Amino acid sequence: MLKAAPATMTPAASTPAVPSAGAGAPAAAADAAQQPATPVAAPSLVISAPAAAPGFKFQEGKKYSLSGIVDAYYNYDADSPTNGNTQLRNFDLRANAVSLTEAKVVLAYDPAPFGIRADIGLGSALETMHPANPSGGGLKYVEQMFVTLKPAKWKGFQADFGQFVTSAGAEVIESGDNWAYSRSLLFAYAIPYYHFGIRTSMPVTSTITAGVQLVQGWNNIFDNNSGKTLGFTAVQTKKYYTFSGNYYVGPENDNTTKGYRNLIDTTLLLTPNAKFNAYINYDYGQNRNVNATNTATTTLSNWQGIAVAGHVQLTSKITATGRFEYFVDPQGFATGTAQHLNEFTVTADYLVHTGVLVRSEFRQDHSDQQFFQRSHNPVNSNFQPTLEIALIAFFGPKT
Fold it and tell me: Taking the alpha carbons of 269, 159, 107, 126 in that order, is the dihedral positive or negative?
């Protein structure tokens, strides 16, 4: 499977096999700084998402910042799954319980020309990113940590070295920087969460930024083989839209460089005005599998999907979002079951106070297979209705 995450499916299938922390189109504008090759963000949560890691000066010429987030939720799953986890979720996976998604602090020092950023925390988001602690030691508490080089005279060139979230996807790890609370199927199953290595970006024209990445692979700090993965990113930003494209390629099978994984990720973010935004996100991935002895490639697994979302600001304190997506996993490589999936989500936000957001959400998932566990008859179902309410709190100095 793709992402390694806590079991949220049937015993034979665990959650996202490989995948994501996307760099998202609708994410807050500040994410462009931590993901230089990702799209310039739209005013997605204009009433609720403060600038991530805003800066304040401790001494002249030195710009540091400290900010953070606490994110908790209650998830009502009408199926009451027997394993206690809502299926097809990665961060908000615990059913019928109050849970902590993430409590995180962000420490940053603006590059001049060297900088640093560290996102450190705990909660189900970090547990999903680092299942069974494969990274070793305290690294399981790290969402990202990297050093930045940005020479003043290099015309906007930037290079980051360390662990950083992926450039793929229309959503990010932080709930408050997304339009919906639950992450999309594409975020959970189509793309990686993070990489370890080096990434670069540089303005090519006044509207286009491009970059190259050389990383260990998908969701690993210590490589699972001797090969490396290449990433290519490009973003075009116009007045009423932003288009981003990402391509990752490299050997991702364990203990062998045989068999390559390819991912194509595209997002079109529409920003006609400050009151309404929308996006279309399409992903296609494939993995050339190997046989039991890792000596030759055999079958080819693939997965693909499309997500469409719209976000509207109703009042100065209330926003609403609708999202629909369709995901195809014909060999069961991503989800553990060969199936076609779709989901529809409706989300409403209420800004209680500056930095404090209450979010409610209804979501219904559907599979063409009897995929969803139930604790009552029938024991399996094609549908999974859920209702969530979340409290998201931000802190940080104002710029």
Answer: positive
Single-letter residue type at 65: S
pLDDT (0 to 100) of residue 293: 83
CA angle 168, 28, 349 (to 5 degrees): 115
Strands (E) in 96-239, as ranges, are 97-109, 114-122, 142-149, 158-165, 194-203, 208-215, 229-237
The whole-angstrom separation of Cα 110 and Cα 296 is 47
Q: Specify the residue for token string 């206690």.
A: 84
Q: In sequence order, what DSSP letters do the residues of 52-103 get, joined into one string?
A: SS--EEEETTEEEEEEEEEEEEEEEETT--TTSB-TT-SSS-BTTEEEEEEE
CATH number of residue 76's parent domain: 2.40.160.10
Q: Note down the domain range covering 132.
A: 31-47+66-395
pLDDT digits (tens, 9 = 90+) for 37-89: 333 333 333 333 333 333 333 334 458 899 999 999 999 999 999 889 999 99
Alpha-helix runs per DSSP H in the chain:
31-34, 124-129, 185-189
Structure tokens at 317: 């304190």
Looking at the domain assignment, is residue 369 inside a domain?
yes
Rounded CA gap, 23 and 21, in Å? 6
The model scores a pTM over 0.90: no
Q: How many domains does the chain have?
A: 1
